[in-house]
Amino acid sequence: MYKHLLIPTDGSELSNRAVASAIEFARSLKAKITFLYVQPEFPLPIAGEGAMLAPESRDEFAQSTREQAERILAEAAVTAKAAGLETSTTTEVSDIPYQVIINTAQNRGCDLVFMASHGRKGLAGLLLGSETHKVLTHCKVPVLVYR
Questions:
Q1: What sections of the sequence does the record tag as coiled-coil (predicted)?
Q2: Which domains are delineated in the chain?
């Protein structure tokens, strides 16, 4: 059925549960896994009254997010390898996570995206949408949403 799963993760509790479930699913299929972490871009400081300036430099921010990505991806990879699965990891810096997820799935030859739903509710959901919803809307690769 599916031979190569893309599993985006952000290290949150729901995302970690999705990773665990995806590993079991991949094991049942004998599929390989690519884990993806999308690092945020450096926030631009906003000038003006009441504006919050970035508390760290661009380099410190990049180092911090890179270390976070490495830690989260390593934890997922160790668990998948312990389950006997072929595993790879990748990370990219972008403020458009859904596009990175779609591009990674296509470029890596994944035949299923297995991701957690972080759906926002109420006004936040209406205004911001959800990365999961955007992936579902735009991705040509099948998407399995873990809730």
A1: none
A2: 1-32+69-84+94-141 (3.40.50.620)
